[in-house]
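Worked Example 4.2. Consider the chain below.
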Amino acid sequence: MFLTTDSFDLKQILLGSEEWSFLLETILRTSIMFLIIIFGLRLLGKRGVKQLSVFELVVIIGLGSAAGDPMFYKDVGIMPALVVFTMIISLYSIITYFIGKSKNFEKLVEGKPICLIDKGVFCIKDFKKEALGEDEFFSELRLKGVSHLGQIEKAIEEISGEISVFYFEDKDVKYGLPVMPNSLDKAIKIFARNSHYSCTFCGYTQEFEAHAKSQCKVCGKDEWVESSNKKRIS
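Applying the procedure from the previous section yields the following structure tokens:
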């Protein structure tokens, strides 16, 4: 079945139900909303743009949604969008004020930093709360120059989603779970030789004798990989 000129309407595809003259109106609408966005973000301040918490992300999405529709929908007026902008910025200012007054309210709205690693071992309870895959997390650690968990004194997920890592000094680096690609692929249950081994689930590390087997003292799992104690190269 072939398309006919009646079923193939180029004007409908390009403009929808509007006329060509609406393109000039779109240019004007977009220019006005663009200036309103800049003004709104200036009112939010640098903190509202540089690193976004969940609360601040909601504000930005709200501003973007309010700005987008009036740019190209003819039946959406600019004044209602301006009211939405005013309300969002006002609510942001009010909530930010109460955040500064109450730590409990701040935690309720923005959450709190989560400790993911403490002295080379995963904080299992906290780690499970976050939607953070092991491979994704290991990738972030590698980007920070980490090759195994024994180099890390603490790793904290900030409210912005960024990972802050605090390192042991070279003299204090311990044996730890390797985080290099495919490092967990050859997990074992019986130790091949006398060495340090790390639990693949929580990172707990201990020295074991050859041909022995053990359950992890922290999480109870029984799969291990040989640990690393390499110094961090920065």
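The chain is about 45% helix and 15% strand. The beta strands are 114-118, 121-122, 152-157, 163-167, 195-199, 205-208, 224-226. Compare this with Example 4.1 before moving on.
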